[in-house]
Each structure stands twice: as C-alpha cells, then as structure tokens.
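User: I'm putting together a small comparison set for a docking exercise, and I want a reference complex before I start. The sequence is below, and the ligand is magnesium ion. Could you produce the 3D structure with the ligand included, as structure tokens?
Assistant: Of course. I'll restate your input first, then give the structure tokens for the complex.
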Amino acid sequence: MRSLLFVPGDSEKKFAKAMDCGADALILDLEDSVAPAAKAAARGLVRREIEAARKIKTRPLIYVRVNPLDSGLIEADLDALVPVQPDGIMLPKSRHGQDIMHLSTKLAVREAESDVPDGVVAILPIATETARALFDLGSYAGSSRRLSGLSWGAEDLSADVGAHSNRLTDGSYTDPYRLARSLALFAAAAAEVAPIDTVFINFRDKEGLLAECEAALRDGFTGKLAIHPDQVKPINAAFTPSPQAIARARAIVQAFAENPHLGVIGVNGEMVDRPHVRRAERLLAAGKLAGAT
Ligand code: COA
Ligand code: MG
C-alpha cells in the first residue's frame, strides 16, 4: 500500500470520487471526520459502499477507521462492518500491542458469527496519537497476524501534549514529532510490517507533499496516508521504485547469487554486503507490489 486515502464516512460523493483516483487503499473514516450525530448514518453508508465495492474486480483495498477502543462506539462500528468484510480496520488512538490483540478478538468473534473467513480482516493502527502510546511501541511486534502496517499521527499527539504547534515555520516537524515518527518507523520494522507515513494536511501544497514523500521513502516508510485525491498520484509515484533503482537492486542480488561464498562484493564501484542485499530484495518486492517490475 503506497497511498491510503481518507474518505469521510458520511460522504457518498467523496467515496465515488475516491474509488477511481488510483489509491492503493481507501480508509473510510468513522472517527474524527464524522460528527457524533452523523455516526450511525455513516455506519450504514460505509457498509453499503463496501458491499458495492466488493463486487468490483479491480478496486482499491478498503479499510475502515473505526472509533477508538474506549469510545463506546467501536462495538456498533464493528457490528455493522465486519459482516461485509472490509479488507482492514484502522485503529486510531492505539496504545500498545495489547490493543491489537483486543481488537483482533472482537474481529474474530464477528467473523465467526457472520461467515467471514477467520482472520481475513487486517488491522492498521495509528500508534502515536497519545503521549502514553510512545512508551509501548515495542509491543506491536508479535501482537497479531492481522497487523498489516503501522502508522503515526502528529495532530492528536500535539493536542494530547498541549503543544501550540507541531511544525516549524519552514514546515518541518518539531523535535517531539520527529521522535514520534522515528519511533513509529522502528516499531513497524520491529513488528515486520509496513511503516506508513502520516498525512500532509496542506493539500494544495504539492512541493511540501513531495518533500515529505522523499524524506519518508529515504527513511524506510513504504507508503503515506492521504486526505485529498490530488495527493494520490504523487504519493504512488514517490513510493514506486524507479527503473534505475530496480536495475541497481537486481545487480546487487545477482552479484550475490553468482558468488554465494563471498560476504562482501564490489558492485558498480560500491561496496555491498548482506544488509545491502536485504535492502535490494525489499526494494524489488516493493517494485513487484507496485507493478513496476
Ligand atoms: N476523498 C474523495 N474525494 C475528495 C476528498 C477525499 N478525501 N477530498 C476532496 N474530495 C473531492 C471533493 O469532494 C471535490 O469533489 P468535486 O470536484 O466532485 O466537487 C474534489 O475532490 C475537490 O475537492 P476540493 O474542493 O479541493 O476540497 P474540499 O474543500 O472539497 O475538501 C477536505 C477538503 C479536507 C474537507 C477534504 O479533502 C476531505 O474531506 N479530506 C478527508 C478528511 C478526512 O477524512 N480526515 C480524517 C483523517 S485526517
Ligand atoms: Mg485524529
């Protein structure tokens, strides 16, 4: 999943537009972008949208962002949605791996009750929305086979901390949010799931989005959340390995395949050893997923 586009769960019009904007995944939102009074109607709408989407052969993955575990709303969210088998659930305000186990149990019960195959609904947490959550990021590793990725967020975190802003005047994140981003990246790597970069909310600022995509790719993120259809194409392009990068990775993998007895080799004037092979293999896998190889 390179691009994951948020769509407010109460907007039929935006859903229609989102379906064919090229996003790898849509996240139909029942949390922050839906007002309390509109939640019940949004559940019904999202349910119908998933039912319709599942009949389409080539479509984006469909995740639903439910309300947090302690909201008093999540039971009704899951009751309405699991029976129509969304591809995944995004869990906001996730605190630790135990929350994933807890949600997984709730999903398993509903899968069993509604003839949905056991374990098919994935979980993607937003893992840095409270200060407390930052101290348990290591606990996602091994929490559930449903875990399909791990994302981070700076907006709710800054509200939790009481920060006046989370960015400097040049647009870059202040230190506390750079730390949260890094920890989320490490947590995803430790759990061996996809690290997904957070949203870029200035949706008219193309350059700012590209700069964030480049920094995310450089650091190891494999995809990015989007809030506007215009952000999807740039995100997909940024997270699709270039032909040059693919050729370089192939050369590294091939050099080691041809010299299995060597630990370190020179490839095109660069020293490469085991970590480089692993990185090259991951790049080729990402390229394959993106249809670029
Ligand atoms: N998904 C699908 N369609 C979207 C969309 C989205 N996330 N964001 C905008 N659009 C559509 C608009 O409906 C509009 O459609 P139209 O041309 O048929 O009228 C078109 O794209 C252009 O939208 P634009 O006028 O540029 O933006 P806007 O002012 O209508 O919407 C937001 C701005 C921020 C309200 C909107 O992008 C949005 O709802 N984003 C998602 C918010 C969200 O889910 N937040 C929770 C996670 S942080
Ligand atoms: Mg939020």
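DSSP finds ten helices and ten strands in the chain. Residues 5-8, 13-14, 17-18, 29, 32-33, 199, 203, 227-229 surround coenzyme A (ligand 1) (CB under 6 Å).
User: Thanks, that's exactly what I needed.
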